[in-house]
């Protein structure tokens, strides 16, 4: 027996957390039959020192607190011996403080055995002293004063622990003999309870009462505290006024330094049971909920899960009350102390106002859930357990939404709907299905449990608590019974799209701008993961979110980034390479993907973050289950970049001015090429680089092999089709690269040979080559009778290419000379120079993007890069223009008023895209690109003229 | 039926009565002369001199509507015209415009109808609608109705391109009525002078491909996106069927007992030309035999057709009759020319710069001297 105990004990001590778990249970562990935790603890700490358990001196905070208690008790014994009441009084006060500390650490309300023992000792001694009148007379005045003080104090104090004391008196010695056995039992029973259970029980004194009483009835302790509020009074005699007064008292104490938050919750929930009228109960419940929110004061840590669950239940009760008495109104505007409205009984007809805001509660609860998911390690079981609470939240949200809709407050309903959307949007159908099944299962279990106890207990409890609850309730029965009115299980439509549509439509109709924008992004995300690229894209473009998102808060921007990432993945699955690249390239442009998606923090070499920023960032992180797989994302980004960039590089060996499509990709490639030795590919980048090398030689087979050997593909659903798509794309791009690279060295290329080389059907080869001819990328033409491509060898020789480059540089030189001259003579100093410089660049852009390779290369490269981001942005421009000028944008869900988006937003982000139009196949509106360019050119041209006029006029 | 008739007649009577004063007023040309362009004045005048108030005007509208429903389109058209001059309610005036347009279309007065379309278009564009959505709807409707006119009016093919390609209407097509693309594409193909819009059209087609495609749009796509000539041929055949079965496109004209579908012939001819042109652009040497097959002509016809094209300077090519091939001339920019072009202006610019510089420095020294 003993050995078992010790081994267990040592186990627990080797792991800090478990220690605390075990220790938590100690005061409660005695339920079994009057165990003596204090002795146990003493033994425990003794064992640390005396036994050869090894050199471990790790002791939890609880141990220390208990030790302190023990010490103080010892001191008191000494003081008693010398009859020093002054010291005794001090010690007593210290003891009480320590008790508080102990209770806080163990999160329990029961007093440890040792405390009771000290009290008993003290009482006995006090009585003895009082009886002994001689001794009293002999005392010094200060001592006598202390004695009197103690007399009163102790009387008051002991009332709290009356029951405990009595029990202790009943069997004061038992502990010594049974110590080991008891301890063993303790340890065992401690194992039996999970942490959650314990905390939950301690959090709610009502249930605790019941449990303890039915557990054998012996162990009653300090948790009678709340009752002390109405001392010696049968709960039935408590009047409305008393409750009201008490409530006010508690509220006033709220937020004060010395107030114990957990205790406040208890007091309030006790009050809730005593409440006389539904309205009062409601009022108290509201305060209970806010007090529960207060339990966790820090922004960074989350609310204890048990408290969270309780809180949800409480809010449900509030909803019950509200549903049962529709005349009770809850709003924030009503003065809490205005009149004694809550006195009116259940049969009162008129409207009663109670202060409170359901939506705020709901949002807070959601935030706490989110935070707890952020904090819990995603690889533990806790995390999964926590995720299971999501349906519970969904239920609550659903009910709150129903309530708010009943009130007709559609704006609030939209807010609630958004919360629900944010719990659903990232779930693919399968995950959603799982959640639905889970919630059904849970409600079935809960329902069964509720049936069992339904007859005996009208109280609100969640399924778990009900099952454990006793058959007889000795605690004061609540005066206001609230039957379960609002449904306790969420109703999920079978397809998540349906739920989304339903909620999103509501939000579009009634939400404010931010809510709508967020809902829209969620909608886009949802469409993207269900492979509806075009719907998602159109939603994005028509809402003009990409222009306005820069002005929104950070979490919305993160959502936007997430939506873009999913859109990119979706485009990739639909084999739309350019679109996929356009979606993703921006995310990867800065190399801060993790931060942009809020999936972790990347260390930046260049600027240190201060702790404040880090904290903020941590608060923004997405919980693990919402993450987008970064490896997959990177793979898709690099592959799309490769498919676009390799032929592009091949086509522009000689001229430097050709734009880069993907800068990060180029950089990677450069790094890779500098390596002396290249090993076999290991990570995503290596794979893509290896494929790039193969592809640039036209060796598509190897490229396909390398790409397909990546393990990220197992994350994709329809793997086969995507592999096929990739192969086809690689073949095509290999063909293009091959032609670009080697056509200058051929007089003619046979169609049949190309077909064989790249494994493509004739029509496709013909189409690809024809396209290149039409785009004047390839200077060649078909010779139809012989089925071959005849090259015209228009590729300039090296000398010619250099000459051409030289000419261009001269051009730039002259231009900069002119600019310098203008800056000098035109006046306006540096500012003017900067401005004009910019205009000049615009001009150069407009004039055909003719800019030197090296001169100002950095900047121009960047601009080119951005401008050339291509399809998506330009298309956005096109569509944007179309809507802006049309003055309407409808999305046939009937969300009018979204036109608010398109006015007034000057997006710097996409300006470049606007001005570099006409390069992509997307240009929708004729005005957007071509006219823009024309206008700009004319404008810039005009300015040039006027500048020179200024110059000449001066003389 | 008899009941219905009685009911209708009864209603007619009632409406006629209520609108009578105004109608009698309007039927008197001398009195109509008195109306001026100022609407307020008109209303006031009517009110004072003829006791015609807003009730009567409203009745006129109802009466016109009733006339329209009874099939008396010319009457309805007249009344609606008059009504518009008097109407103050903008909603109603738009309804009146629509009514007028409907009357004209039903009476097949294409010229007048075109005017009406333009008027309606102006109103729709200028009017600030309560919601963009309804504006969009109005636009879409307008485009649908205008199909009647454009495919019957002589100048309709131009008109349709003008209307549909104007920014806002193109947007409306893209958002609301993809099927209208077919008519736009047909009009563009048939219209020789409007080649320039084809690129844009292709962009639109590609953009909307995921929601709408039919043989006509696919034809263009095959030809200009995929350069798939076989596919284009195939689509062309499908196009023929589509055109014949389409209400607007397949309008039949019977002359001397022959039934012809003018649009189809035109379309086929132009489409063939398109194919050939594109084909020539990427080929250096084409076998006439093969070409004639593709163009559904016999060898000689094809040769003649090509010769004609060459003569009309539409094609830079020569026929090699011995080999039976067409040899394209190639034109490619000379690299030397390019460089000369680039550097030509540089000298001038530098010269201007230096002279400016000298002038400035002279001015500066002059001012310093002063």
UniProtKB/TrEMBL annotation, chain A:
GO terms for cellular component: eukaryotic 43S preinitiation complex; eukaryotic 48S preinitiation complex; eukaryotic translation initiation factor 3 complex. Coiled coil: none annotated. GO terms for biological process: formation of cytoplasmic translation initiation complex; translational initiation. It is found in: Cytoplasm. It comes from Physcomitrium patens. Residues 222-231 have a biased composition (Basic and acidic residues). The lineage of its organism: Eukaryota, Viridiplantae, Streptophyta, Embryophyta, Bryophyta. The gene is LOC112281649. Residues 1-63, 167-234, 824-955 are annotated as: Disordered. The keyword Aminoacyl-tRNA synthetase does not apply. InterPro entries: EIF3C, EIF3C_N_dom, EIF3CL_C, PCI_dom, WH_DNA-bd_sf. Keywords: Cytoplasm, Initiation factor, Protein biosynthesis. Residues 624-796 form the PCI domain. Belongs to the eIF-3 subunit C family. One of its GO terms (molecular function) is RNA binding. This is Eukaryotic translation initiation factor 3 subunit C. Component of the eukaryotic translation initiation factor 3 (eIF-3) complex, which is involved in protein synthesis of a specialized repertoire of mRNAs and, together with other initiation factors, stimulates binding of mRNA and methionyl-tRNAi to the 40S ribosome. The eIF-3 complex specifically targets and initiates translation of a subset of mRNAs involved in cell proliferation. PROSITE patterns: PCI. Residues 12-26, 174-198, 205-216 have a biased composition (Acidic residues). Component of the eukaryotic translation initiation factor 3 (eIF-3) complex. The keyword Cytoplasm applies. Residues 886-918 have a biased composition (Polar residues).
TrEMBL record, chain B:
GO terms for molecular function: translation initiation factor activity. CDD domains: eIF3E. Residues 149-333 form the PCI domain. Its main location: cytoplasm. Keywords: Cytoplasm, Initiation factor, Protein biosynthesis. GO terms for biological process: formation of cytoplasmic translation initiation complex. One of its GO terms (cellular component) is eukaryotic 43S preinitiation complex. It is found in: Cytoplasm. It comes from the Eukaryota. Belongs to the eIF-3 subunit E family. Component of the eukaryotic translation initiation factor 3 (eIF-3) complex, which is involved in protein synthesis of a specialized repertoire of mRNAs and, together with other initiation factors, stimulates binding of mRNA and methionyl-tRNAi to the 40S ribosome. The eIF-3 complex specifically targets and initiates translation of a subset of mRNAs involved in cell proliferation. Component of the eukaryotic translation initiation factor 3 (eIF-3) complex. PANTHER family: EUKARYOTIC TRANSLATION INITIATION FACTOR 3 SUBUNIT E (PTHR10317). This is Eukaryotic translation initiation factor 3 subunit E. It comes from Physcomitrium patens (Spreading-leaved earth moss). The gene is LOC112276854.
């Amino acid at each position: 027996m003993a050995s078992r105990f010790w081994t267990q004990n040592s186990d627990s001590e080797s792991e800090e957390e478990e220690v605390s778990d075990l220790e938590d249970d100690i005061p409660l562990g005695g339920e079994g039959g009057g165990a003596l935790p204090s002795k146990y603890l003493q033994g425990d700490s003794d064992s640390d020192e005396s036994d050869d358990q090894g050199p471990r001196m790790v002791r939890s905070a609880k141990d220390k607190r208990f030790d302190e208690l023990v010490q103080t008790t010892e001191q008191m014994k000494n003081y008693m011996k010398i009859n020093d009441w002054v010291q005794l009084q001090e010690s007593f006060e210290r003891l009480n403080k320590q008790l508080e500390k102990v209770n806080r650490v163990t999160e329990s309300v029961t007093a440890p055995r040792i405390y009771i023992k000290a009290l008993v000792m003290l009482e006995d001694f006090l009585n003895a002293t009082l009886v002994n009148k001689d001794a009293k007379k002999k005392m010094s005045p200060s001592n006598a004063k202390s004695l009197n003080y103690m007399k009163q104090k102790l009387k008051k104090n002991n009332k709290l622990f009356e029951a405990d004391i009595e029990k202790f008196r009943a069997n004061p010695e038992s502990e010594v003999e049974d110590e080991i056995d008891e301890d063993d039992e303790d340890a065992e029973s401690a194992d039996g309870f999970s942490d959650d259970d314990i905390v939950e029980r301690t959090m709610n004194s009502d249930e605790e009462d019941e449990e303890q009483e039915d557990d054998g009835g012996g162990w009653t302790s300090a948790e009678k505290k709340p009752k002390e509020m109405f001392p010696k009074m049968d709960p039935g005699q408590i009047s409305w006024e008393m409750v009201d007064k008490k409530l006010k008292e508690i509220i006033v104490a709220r937020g004060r330094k010395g107030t114990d938050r957990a205790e406040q919750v208890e007091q309030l929930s006790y009050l809730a049971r005593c409440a006389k009228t539904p309205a009062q109960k409601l009022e108290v419940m509201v305060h209970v909920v806010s007090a529960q929110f207060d339990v966790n004061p820090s922004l960074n840590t989350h609310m204890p899960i048990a408290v969270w669950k309780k809180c949800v239940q409480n809010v449900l009760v509030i909803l019950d009350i509200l549903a049962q008495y529709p005349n009770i109104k809850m709003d924030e505007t009503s003065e809490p102390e205005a009149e004694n409205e809550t006195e009116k009984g259940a049969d009162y007809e008129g409207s009663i106002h109670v202060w409170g805001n359901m939506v705020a509660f709901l949002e807070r609860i959601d935030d706490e859930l989110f935070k707890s998911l952020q904090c819990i390690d995603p690889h533990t079981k806790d995390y999964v357990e926590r995720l299971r609470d999501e349906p519970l939240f969904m239920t609550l949200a659903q009910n709150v939404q129903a309530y708010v809709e009943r009130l007709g407050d559609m704006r609030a309903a939209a807010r609630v709907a958004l919360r629900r959307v944010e719990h659903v949007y990232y779930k693919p159908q399968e995950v959603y299905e799982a959640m639905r099944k889970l919630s059904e299962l849970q409600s079935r279990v809960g329902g069964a449990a509720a049936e069992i106890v339904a007859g005996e207990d009208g109280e609100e409890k969640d399924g778990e608590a009900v099952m454990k609850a006793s058959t007889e309730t000795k605690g004061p029965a609540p005066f206001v019974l609230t039957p379960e009115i609002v449904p306790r299980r969420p109703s999920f439509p079978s397809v998540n799209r349906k739920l989304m549509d339903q909620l999103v439509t509501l939000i579009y109709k009634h939400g404010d701008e931010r809510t709508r924008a967020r809902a829209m992004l969620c909608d886009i995300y949802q469409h993207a993961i269900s492979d509806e690229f075009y719907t998602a894209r159109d939603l994005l473009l028509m809402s003009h979110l990409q222009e306005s998102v820069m002005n929104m808060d950070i979490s919305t921007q993160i959502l936007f980034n997430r939506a873009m990432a999913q859109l990119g993945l979706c485009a990739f699955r639909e084999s739309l390479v350019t679109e996929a690249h356009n979606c993703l390239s921006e995310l990867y442009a800065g190399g801060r993907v993790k931060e942009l998606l809020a999936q972790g923090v990347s260390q930046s070499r260049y600027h240190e973050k201060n702790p404040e920023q880090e904290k903020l960032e941590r608060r923004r992180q997405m919980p693990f289950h919402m993450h987008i797989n970064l490896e997959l994302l990177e793979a898709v980004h690099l592959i799309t970049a490769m498919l676009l960039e390799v032929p592009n590089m091949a086509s522009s060996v000689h001229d430097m001015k050709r734009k880069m499509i993907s800068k990060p990709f180029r950089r990677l490639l450069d790094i890779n090429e500098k390596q002396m030795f290249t090993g076999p590919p290991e990570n995503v980048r290596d794979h893509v680089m290896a494929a790039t090398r193969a592809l640039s030689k036209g060796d598509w087979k190897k490229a396909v092999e390398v790409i397909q050997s990546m393990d990220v593909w197992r994350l994709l659903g329809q793997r086969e089709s995507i592999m096929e798509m990739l192969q086809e794309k690689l073949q095509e791009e290999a063909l293009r690269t091959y032609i670009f690279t080697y056509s200058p060295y051929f007089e003619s290329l046979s169609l049949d040979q190309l077909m064989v080389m790249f494994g493509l059907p004739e029509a496709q080869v013909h189409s690809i080559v024809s396209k290149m001819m039409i785009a004047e990328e390839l200077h060649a033409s078909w010779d139809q009778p012989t089925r071959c491509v005849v090259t015209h060898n228009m590729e300039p020789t090296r000398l010619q290419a250099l000459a051409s480059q030289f000419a261009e540089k001269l051009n730039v030189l002259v231009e900069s000379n002119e600019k310098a001259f203008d800056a000098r003579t035109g006046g306006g100093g540096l500012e003017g120079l900067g401005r004009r410089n910019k205009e000049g660049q615009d001009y150069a852009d407009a004039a055909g993007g003719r800019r030197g390779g090296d001169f100002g290369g950095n900047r121009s490269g960047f601009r080119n890069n951005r401008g050339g981001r291509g399809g998506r942005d330009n298309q956005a421009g096109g569509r944007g223009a179309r809507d802006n000028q049309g003055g309407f944008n409808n999305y046939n869900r009937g969300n009018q008023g979204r036109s608010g988006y398109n006015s007034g937003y000057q997006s710097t982000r996409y300006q470049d895209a606007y001005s570099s139009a006409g390069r992509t196949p997307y240009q929708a509106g004729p005005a957007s690109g071509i006219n823009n360019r024309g206008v700009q050119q004319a404008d810039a041209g005009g300015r040039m003229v006027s500048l020179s006029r200024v110059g000449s006029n001066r003389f | 039926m008899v009941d219905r008739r009685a009911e209708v007649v009864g209603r007619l009577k009632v409406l006629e009565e209520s609108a009578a004063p105004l109608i009698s007023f309007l039927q008197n040309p001398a009195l109509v002369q008195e109306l001026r362009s100022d609407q307020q004045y008109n209303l006031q005048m009517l009110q004072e001199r003829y006791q015609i108030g807003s009730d009567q005007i409203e009745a006129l509208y109802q009466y016109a509507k009733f006339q329209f429903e009874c099939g008396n389109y010319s009457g309805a058209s007249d009344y609606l015209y008059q009504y518009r001059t008097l109407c103050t309610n903008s909603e109603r005036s738009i309804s009146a415009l629509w009514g007028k347009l409907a009357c004209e279309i039903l009476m097949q007065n294409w010229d007048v109808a075109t005017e009406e379309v333009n008027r309606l278009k102006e109103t729709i564009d200028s009017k600030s609608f309560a919601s963009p959505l309804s504006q969009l709807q109005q636009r879409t409707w307008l485009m649908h109705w205008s199909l009647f006119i454009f495919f019957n009016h002589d100048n309709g093919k131009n008109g349709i391109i003008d209307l549909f390609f104007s920014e806002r209407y193109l947007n409306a097509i893209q958002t609301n009525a993809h099927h209208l693309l077919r008519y736009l594409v047909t009009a563009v193909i048939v219209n020789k002078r409007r080649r320039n819009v084809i690129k844009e059209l292709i962009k639109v087609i590609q953009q909307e491909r995921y929601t709408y495609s039919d043989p006509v749009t696919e034809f263009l796509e095959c030809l200009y996106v995929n350069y798939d000539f076989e596919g284009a041929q195939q689509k062309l055949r499908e196009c023929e069927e589509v055109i014949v079965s389409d209400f607007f496109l397949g309008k039949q004209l019977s002359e001397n007992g022959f039934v012809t579908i003018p649009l189809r012939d035109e379309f086929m001819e132009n489409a063939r030309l398109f194919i050939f042109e594109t084909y020539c652009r990427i080929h250096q040497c084409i076998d006439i035999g093969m070409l004639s097959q593709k163009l559904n002509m016999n060898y000689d016809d094809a040769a003649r057709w090509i010769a004609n094209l060459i003569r009309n300077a539409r094609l830079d090519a020569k026929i090699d009759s011995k080999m039976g091939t067409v040899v394209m001339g190639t034109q490619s920019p000379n690299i030397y020319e390019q460089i000369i072009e680039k550097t030509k202006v540089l000298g001038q610019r530098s010269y201007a710069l230096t002279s400016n510089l000298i002038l400035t420095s002279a001015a500066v020294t002059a001012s310093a001297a002063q």
